[in-house]
Amino acid sequence: GRDHPMRIIEKKNSSEASGGQEPIKDPLQSVEEWQSYKEEKAKMESEDPNWTPVDPDKKEEEFRNYNKNPRYERVRNFYRLNHLNQTYDFVVKMKKKYAKLSRMEMGLWEALELLDTYVDDSDPDTNLSQLMHALQTAEAVRAKYPGEEYDWYHLTGLIHDMGKFLGSVYGEEQWCVVGDTFPVGCKFSDKIEFSEFFKHNKDVNDAKLSSKLGVYKEGCGLSNVLMSYGHDEYMYQVCVQNNCKLPLQALYMIRFHSFYPWHKEGEYMHLCDEQDLAMLKWVKDFNQFDLYSKADEIPNRKELIKYYKGLVKKYFPEKMKW
What CA–CA distance (Å, rounded) separates 30 from 201? Predict the structure, then answer.
């Protein structure tokens, strides 16, 4: 019979078979893809263990350079899975699954510490834990915008990636937690990273879902567009449903910081409304801290905890739904 797309392929624990590899989750749908996947997996496992993201001399153009990067094969493999599986129907299902934040309650700082062991496979620029990246980003914002009137921006830098809770706590696959986001329900832009992998996404065979506007109207606003599901949308919903006091600029940064085809490539402008266009400059501004702070020196978190815990208390309730 035909293999179920989410079947786990068990590797025999013998020297002739896999050499004791972990079981590989296989959502690929053809033998050819599976062969490529195995080759990439082998390369991925031999990546340079000495590579470190902390390099203050790294130039901006070297970031997001997937081709000459020790994590390239892991990133490429990630996007193959992401682009295959992020369909319109899948996003509708995931938004429904997490529509009500009723799984657990905890404070924001407690949740942030849970992310400390989680590393983002889609990111070629860092292999630091999420908490270290969060502190790097927040401190980069604070250095450029030191005033108390921007303390909301400092906090946004700290929490912007906390939607990765989806993977670290709820066990969702990384291809539906992290990575660049893009609209579903309309044509996929060729400016999306590894856009060649969309040829295996079922939506490209649907005339409506693969047209320029798809299921949307021109100028409908990004709040009415379904984005590929991941940590941006989840954390946005956490902020809104817990009645946080962050301003609209912060909510846009959280919800759309991974939407690189929009804020970097200028794609999908035909779906934007006036509010989206007004907020775009803030999302662009935030990107410099999200991306380029990853080669800064790793901050001493003990010195910073008191300051950021104070901001958490100012903008968020003590207990939150997740």
Answer: 13
Helix (H, G, I), strand (E, B) or coil at 24: strand
Both structure tokens of 61: 């153009």
Residue 181 has phi, psi (to 5 degrees) of -105, 165
Residue 8: helix, strand or coil by DSSP? Answer: strand
Q: What residues are paired with 227 via a beta bridge?
A: 183
Tracing tokens 């100012």 back to the chain, one arrives at: 314
- Using DSSP's 3-state secondary structure scheme, residue 320 falls into strand
End-to-end Cα, the chain, rounded Å:
39
Taking the chain (322 residues) in runs of 10, the rounded mean pLDDT of each run is: 32 33 34 31 47 64 65 79 96 96 94 74 67 84 96 97 87 87 98 95 98 98 98 97 98 96 96 98 92 67 88 98 96
Which residues make Cβ contacts (< 8 Å) with residue 60, sequence separation at least 6? 292
- Which residues partner with 229 through β-bridges? none
Residue 9 backbone dihedrals phi, psi, to 5 degrees: -90, 115
Q: Quote the CA–CA distance of 182 and 169 in Å, as a whole number.
A: 24
Residue 162 corresponds to which amino acid?
M
* Cα dihedral 222→226→229→232 (10° resolution): 20
Q: Which two tokens stand for residue 287?
A: 């990107």
Q: How far apart are CA 87 and CA 197, in angstroms?
A: 13
Q: Are 176 and 85 in contact (CB under 8 A)?
A: yes
Q: What's the CA gap between 273 and 225, in Å, rounded?
A: 11
Q: Kindly report the backbone phi and psi dihedral angles of residue 176, in degrees, each rounded to the nearest multiple of 5, phi listed first.
A: -115, 25
For residues 158 and 138, is the Cβ–Cβ distance under 8 A?
A: yes
* CA–CA separation, 139 and 247 (whole Å): 19
Radius of gyration for the alpha carbons in the chain, expressed in angstroms and rounded:
20
